[in-house]
Amino acid sequence: SEQAAGEKPHCELQRTESCKVQVTAEGGKGKALCGEGRPSSSCVFVVRKDQDIYIQTLRKLFNESHGIFIGLQRSEEEFAGKSRKTQLVQVSKNYRSVIRACMEDMHQAAVSARDPALHSQYSTQVSILSAMELIWNLCEILFVEAAVAGPLLLRLLDWVRLHVCDVDNMVREVLSSENPSKHELFWNVVDVFVLQGRMDEARHLLSKEASANPTSVNMCRILDDLMKKMPVPSLGNTQTLTEMELKWQHWHEECQRYLQDGTFASNSHMESICKILLGDENAILEKKELMTTWYHFLVTRLLYSHPTVKPMELRFYAQSSMDLFLGGESSPEPLDTILMAAFEFELHQVIKECSIALSNWWFVAHLTDLLDHCKLLQSHNLYFGSNMREFLLLEYASGLFSHYSLWQLGVDYFDHCPEYGRVYLELHIERIPLNTEQKALKVLRICEQRQMHEQVRSICKIMAMKALRNNRLGSALSWSIRAKDAAFATLISDRFLKDYCEKGCFSDLDLIDNLGPSMLLSDRLTFLGKYREFHRLYGEKRFSEAAKLLLMLMTAHIAPCSFWMTLLTDALPLLEQKEVIFSAEQTYELMRCLEDLTAGKSDKQKFQDDDVETMKVEMLRLALARNLARVIVKEGTLEGS
Amino acid sequence: DGTSCVSVCARCLAKSDGVISIQDNRISIWSVGDLGNVGLNGEYQGEPQLLCDIRHNGDVMDMQTLSANQRWEKAHYHVDRDASCGGAACTGVICSNPEIVTVGEDGRINLFRADQKDAVRTIDNADSSTLHAVTFLRTTEILTVNSIGQLKIWDLRQQRNEPSQIFSLTGDRVPLHCVDRHPNQQHIVATGGQDGMLSIWDIRQGTMPVSLLNAHEAEMWEVHFHPSNPDHLFTCSEDGSLWHWDTSTSVSEKPSFLHQGGRSTTYFSHNTINQSVVSAWLSNDPTKDRMEITNLIPNQTLSVNSLDILGPCLVYGTDAEAIYVNRHLFA
């Protein structure tokens, strides 16, 4: 598995907590690696590329949530208690609205997709996003907001109303028909309203029934009255729980009396509604199709039998609700397991189950981060040292790095992982493919801001080398300057000098003539600049300055020894001028340089020197001697001195 | 949506205001719609409508509007044009209908015409380093900036492949990333560098910038004079900020006694402030001139890669794959 971790981050490993890598093959694209480790277990790991990051509409999710994440990390911790909680709830709501926006876009994409495979992919994504929002919403109610008994039920009711939409079409159909009470699905809709605790809407429909059916007016009125009087928990501080419970008890008894009196005996629909109001499990269960899910059943049950349920009591009701609803016909799906874990307040279980069920780390990473900010995750360390939040963020961000543009988001996530974030970033950032200079500049800026000097040097070297290979000497120099890489600047200068020796003239004069202070980056570069200056001075016929510069290049050892011969040869035309340019001192210096140069060669080298070389040396000696003669005479005469 | 928004371009498409964006190597034209839907901050409330969409191979770095439709492949390349990896990024494009000039990482300048299949003129190895941006100085002259801090003027009428003038920064040869010319006074040029510094040049005189203004904390990606209100300048940067530079206040402070004193009045005109010959951009006196600089982005996170302005409308794109439109710039 270490082998797999060292892979380039183009593929993504799914890990369960027991660290056995899941095997998923992807139609020929999978790469097989052999597992190392214990000799008895030889596993084959198939590594799969994370496709989700390439889905167009999901990119909005990643980008927007990145903004929310950063905002959360930067938010002031000085708010304590209630205002902090409000802030965190707002963050949670923001995340959820991003998921919903994404769902909308995905839905639009699904509707307009012509390719059936694409359509089904998008539709799947829509349902996945919907499930994510469902889970997140529940976690917000139970963990972030930590709703207490009373408001808890109201929140759960909202939750159910928002997410059980299968019945919306039916509701719309009945409501928009001319004579709703005559519609065959009329009572279904009334039931739906009652099951979801939407009393006002139920009562509204009942009034239609009352006006349409005079025989049932009395029953309607009583039922309407019961619905109106039903006590619900309040959000504000208008009543205490005990008060509410008392009122509810009275109301419950009143309903009981009406039922037992047989008030609704003639209308089975209304009788069943009355039973539902009394919290009769069987009556509620009869409406299974209208509730569609066990958690709807749970909330309805709670509404009508235990509206002041405490958070910690939820687990019992949840388990029994699921058992009753599924009734042994079907087994719980992953979503059910996750929700159950949430009702049981098993945070780690929720996160674990979500990690397994979902195909990328986005959801668990952000949710865990939020829960961590709510101070709900104990900081027990996982076996390799970092905590759960950091682990998930690292996984998520690593996945982003394989994308050609989302990697920038990943950087910020690593920044907020205190233990390993920096190391991960250092490793990942060097492996981003740099196909354009602008991308390289962005990467460099990120490294410089975080004092990652190694990475800066390495990236600049890569870019400089690429430029050099493409013959872009100016670009190469510009990269070396950025990295303050003297060695590379020397390399570039050598290249220029080589070009000069071969072609006899300088290429890229616009660069060499305008080196400015960057000339000082390396000795060779300084030499190059000065040498070019010599040529310029010579071209402008400022011979004595040129001569002085030339000599200085050798005596100050700015010029590399290999170049001295060239420099001395350059001195020849100056020596041959009609006017004497080099002074006696200077001529002696030049002679010394020549002798140093030739003395340095061993006898063997001298033997290998071809005629041209020896002739050059001879010519130089002659020219120097002649110059010396002339200058001695000149300096000796009265006018000359 | 899409990748990092690398370039935006605001233009009036027919009658409705349009925004052109580049994302995910796809050039998209959006209609930002009518003025009916303006929210509290003057921000457009509705969703921009996608009008059309063209796919593009490779990263799109820059763009301009033109009415014709052409495609010049491999306009920029390193060494060997036909090698598969030989392509070089084209970093800048400017057009003045029907002529189009492009520059690239290969140091090459290409001149195209919208109706011609091949390049009209190519200057190979115009620069030994990467050319980052190009703009028109006059109809036959262009300005380029490169990664060794040089601003060059090229005269396209001349056949020689040498710049007619070279300007460079003082001090370190910090790469220059963007260039723009004052819309009315063509001798005033603004450039932005890798260190976030804004340089104002007077190309009539000297080879060094007139003023250097310390601005952003990271690369300045684009600089634009407002086309009809050139006392306003806009710059955007890798550090995530977008600055609005406003010198209009300083010009109005010019004391009127100079006018009454009988001095030559060729320096000041009677009409609008914009017509003032001595532009606020060139004057250096800190006591007289105040420049107002505002950061237009409240919560900056990722880089702002590109901006454009037209009238009261500002458009910019960020690395967070979002485009922002501000339709009430001077409100």
From TrEMBL, chain A:
Functions as a component of the nuclear pore complex (NPC). GO terms for cellular component: nuclear membrane; nuclear pore outer ring. Its main location: nucleus. One of its GO terms (molecular function) is structural constituent of nuclear pore. GO terms for biological process: mRNA export from nucleus; positive regulation of DNA-templated transcription; protein import into nucleus. Keywords: Membrane, mRNA transport, Nuclear pore complex, Nucleus, Protein transport, Translocation, Transport. The lineage of its organism: Eukaryota, Metazoa, Chordata, Craniata, Vertebrata. PANTHER family: FROUNT PROTEIN-RELATED, NUCLEAR PORE COMPLEX PROTEIN NUP85. Belongs to the nucleoporin Nup85 family. It is found in: Nucleus, Nuclear pore complex. Pfam families: Nucleopor_Nup85. This is Nuclear pore complex protein Nup85. Component of the nuclear pore complex (NPC).
TrEMBL record, chain B:
Coiled coil: none annotated. InterPro entries: WD40/YVTN_repeat-like_dom_sf, WD40_repeat_CS, WD40_repeat_dom_sf, WD40_rpt. One of its GO terms (cellular component) is nuclear pore outer ring. The keyword Oxidoreductase does not apply. WD repeats lie at residues 169-211, 213-255. Pfam families: WD40. It is found in: Nucleus. Keywords: Nucleus, Repeat, WD repeat. This is Nucleoporin 43.
